[in-house]
Design a protein that fits this description.
By secondary structure, the chain is α/β, with parallel strands linked by helices. The chain has one domain: Vaccinia Virus protein VP39 (Rossmann fold, 3-Layer(aba) Sandwich). Helices cover 42% and strands 20% of the residues. A 7-stranded mixed beta sheet has the order 3-2-1-4-5-7-6, sandwiched between helices. The two termini are 30 Å apart.
Length: 276
């Protein structure tokens, strides 16, 4: 079972602001002209990147009147995209202090610090009042949280009635031991991957009704094929990409992820639930 300290240490980089700034400059951009789209290669820390974000968030009926909660917001990439794409206000929370500190800096770069508000803290003890939000979502977060029931209960508590909660996580879809390391965990002891049925049960017990479910295995494998082709054509990773977040063993993590998905053991799955 992963502890909160394990999770935070796993994602801590040490100097993310400098690393991202250098990546931006390598693209020939300046901080005062960088856009949300420019940041997508490092902002979208989940399978499928920006396309996955669009496909997923489009289902949540976000608009300028909505206030959304981004659970496990990481660097705030999805929050910035949601705020810029749908015009909504987004509040994010993440366990890793460096992610939140970096996210606030980057929000300033792209002029979204008046619509995206970020907090360091635990998804199992959300520092928000009951009924604070119109929508909630999380992208590739539950693999680090063992207590899915507590997670869903907390999200339910801070949502208004009839609100939507979207989950896009890597989930267990078959038998067999996973090969590690993967992007969210170095070993099995720090991973909390669960089956879709476990998520559905936790959601239902917390007071949600699941209204949609989609397994994105084929989409994921196509995404990784395209990623490998682009990397090979360029002779290596781009100046700005997820290798900045995953570190030196990025190739191992990605290859293991692909093998685990290809073997039918895991897949990214979307769940959309509505608060009863």
């Amino acid at each position: 079972m992963p502890t909160q300290q394990d999770v935070s240490q796993h994602y801590t980089h040490g100097d993310l602001v400098t690393a991202i700034r250098k990546g931006i400059e390598s693209l020939g951009k300046k901080i005062d002209s960088v856009t949300v789209d420019d940041l997508a290669p490092v902002d979208e820390f989940h399978i499928g990147g920006r396309q996955a974000s669009e496909d997923f968030l489009d289902q949540l009926e976000l608009n300028p009147e909505r206030h959304a909660l981004d659970v496990g917001c990481g660097l705030g990439g999805a929050a910035r995209f949601a705020a810029s794409r749908y015009g909504c206000q987004v509040t994010g929370i993440d366990l890793t202090p460096e992610y939140i500190e970096t996210a606030k800096v980057v929000c300033g770069w792209v002029g979204l610090d008046d619509r995206v508000f970020l907090h360091q803290g635990s998804a199992l003890a959300l520092p928000f009042a009951n009924g604070s939000f119109d929508r909630a979502y999380m992208l590739h977060v539950g693999m680090n949280i063992d207590d899915k029931m507590k997670l869903c209960s907390e999200v339910n508590r801070v949502l208004k009635g009839n609100s939507l909660f979207g989950i896009y996580d890597v989930m267990r879809t078959g038998d067999g031991e996973l090969t590690y390391p993967v992007p969210w965990a170095t070993t099995a002891s720090s991973s909390a991957v669960a089956k879709p049925a476990e998520y559905r049960d936790a959601l239902q017990q917390a007071g949600f009704t699941v209204v949609a479910e989609r397994n994105r295995r084929d989409f994921a494998l196509a995404f990784f094929d395209q990623l490998r082709a682009r990397t090979a054509a360029a002779g290596g990773p781009p100046p700005l990409g997820l290798h900045i977040l995953m570190g030196r063993n990025t190739p191992d993590k990605v290859q293991n992820m692909i093998a685990n998905i290809s073997g039918g053991k895991i897949a990214p799955v979307e769940l959309i639930a509505r608060k009863v």
